[in-house]
Amino acid sequence: MPLPKLTFVIGAAASGKSAYAEALVRASGLARTYIATAEAFDDEMAAKIAAHRAARAAHGWQTQEAPLDVTGALARTGPGQAVLLDCLTLWLSNLMLAERDALAELDGMLDRVAGLEGPVVIVSNEVGAGVVPETSLGRAFRGVQGRANQAVAARADCVVQVTVGLPQALKGPLPGLAP
Questions:
Q1: Considering 52, 142, 147, 171, which one is annotated as catalytic?
Q2: What is the band of 1 on the pLDDT scale with cuts at 50, 70, 90?
Q3: Which of 14, 85, 88, 167 suits 158 as a labelling partner, its CA being 20 to 30 A distant?
Q4: Catalytic status, residue 52
Q5: For residue 18, how many other CB atoms are within 10 A of its CB?
Q6: % of the chain exceeding 90 in pLDDT
Q7: pLDDT in tens, 68-100
Q8: Is 45 helix (H, G, I), strand (E, B) or coil?
Q9: Cβ neighbours of residue 56 under 8 Å, at least 6 residues apart?
């Protein structure tokens, strides 16, 4: 089964959602672009990003690092490519820390996705199941993330929740993976 136009993969931290999303895009058989949104604010994150860069390069991904300009990165993808955006959560956080209107930028990004020829897979974290954040910034982020996840899910053809490495379709059929 080919990838739908927009697949939304959501789950908790370390749930296996990124690995599942990567496998979906690889199984598409299309040229693939990885839009990475992480920034290195400490040595641990720098090492993690370097390891991810090396792994993607070894597996034929074209990577665009876009901590703030995801819409521009999408505009630079080739026609008919499969695109993986990992992850929405870090992008929204980056936008909020840069004091930009994250939800307005999300709308623009989703409009860009709709105009692409190839399929797009967006990865995000479910952040609303935990305790209420202690700080006002944490509570504001949780609210923006929740509204963003709902907006992406509403426009997605397929929504998959990954828990302990197991995908479950929440909307649309579960995309198939090649053996």
A1: 52
A2: low
A3: 14
A4: yes
A5: 17
A6: 79
A7: 999 999 999 989 899 999 999 999 999 999 999
A8: helix
A9: 34, 63
